[in-house]
Amino acid sequence: MKTEEYLDFCTAELAPVFRRFEAVERVVFRRVQEAFRRERVQQSDFMGSTGYGYGDVGRDKLGRVFARAFECEDALVRPQIMSGTHAISTALFGLLRHGDTMLCVSGEPYDTLKSAISAFPQFGIHYEQTELIHSGLDYESIKNRLAAGDVKMVYAQRSRGYASRRSLLPDELGRLAQLAHGIDKNIIVMVDNCYGEFVLEHEPTYYGADVIAGSLIKNAGGGLAPTGGYIAGKREYVETAAERLTVPGIGREIGSYEAGLRLFYQGLFIAPHTVCEALKNAALIALALYGKGYRVSPAADEARTCI
After folding, report:
1. Phi/psi at 215 (nearest 5 deg)?
2. pLDDT tens across 170-212, in order?
3. Residue 276 contacts by C-beta under 8 Å, 6 or more apart in sequence?
4. 109, 196, 218, 282: most buried by Cβ count inside 10 Å?
5. pLDDT tens, 129-160?
């Protein structure tokens, strides 16, 4: 069988899986579309700004549109956030203080974040982690550690990143949030959401996560955003992270971007479809390689939570 014929065969076999992806796309796109409508996005919002960036209406509106898309209170969306690691570390160093402890519950973070966390001792911040069991969260170990006290933040990495484990589903992260808040409502539950945006109908914030962060170069930028990242969740935490990104006391009020925000708005608008197509391609290649004798993970028909 020729390659084209083999891929056509695999595509036909995956019709039920593709329909599942498309159903999610429709739900998410309606929410994104409604966010644009509710915030009355218009052409003038695409314009760039210079100088300090005070009063940049389009910039601030972009954050509100993202917040509606992520079903949370607030979002900081900026071209000045250069990567997912930058977004995450901005939130970490913005929210954690001297003497605080962060508990990472998804095992060892990926390399660039490990580098950022290695600076914790300089700021008097403590780091601990629990390991995954059967590629899932070890809720018993997490519960025991949180019950002992002194944990300010529970942190989880949604995507497998560069590891061979499976990715974490948002409802699993919801159970984590429920567990943490049940022990202490002031514990901050933060999720590295990179590669996971719009893969499923709802984001971790819908299930109770306090903060999520990620890159616009991945899912949420729809392949159009040339740079940037976001921090989203509860307003008080987003505001605090904004002061880490810029200046305490000024926070999100400044930050110009002369190139304009059109690609960021358009990227978000098409992101549900772009993510859906990425998932289709991932499933297709998984099935095609499996049919040729390769081991693949995740399997073509396995539930996915990241691209």
Report:
1. -105, 145
2. 889 999 999 999 999 999 999 999 999 999 999 999 999 999 9
3. 21, 22, 24, 25
4. 196
5. 999 998 899 999 999 999 999 999 999 999 98
The two counts, helices (H) then strands (E), for the chain are: 9, 7
Amino acid at 41: V
Q: How many CB atoms lie within 10 A of CB 54?
A: 11
Please name which of 112, 141, 207 lies closest in space to residue 168, comparing C-alpha atoms: 207
Is residue 218 over pLDDT 90?
A: yes
Tell me if 190 sits within 8 A of 91, measured CB to CB.
yes
Tokens of 273: 């479809």
What element of type H or E holds 57?
helix 57-69
Model pLDDT for residues 230-259, shown as the tens digit of each residue: 999 999 999 999 999 999 999 999 999 999
pLDDT of residue 163: 82
Q: Left if phi > 0, otherwise alpha if psi is -120 to 50, otherwise beta: which for 107?
A: left
Q: What is the mean pLDDT of the chain?
A: 96
**For 176, phi and psi rounded to 5 degrees?**
-60, -45
Tokens at 121, concatenated: 């001792």
Contacts with 59 (C-beta within 8 Å, 6 or more apart), sequence order: 49, 53, 77, 78, 255, 257, 261
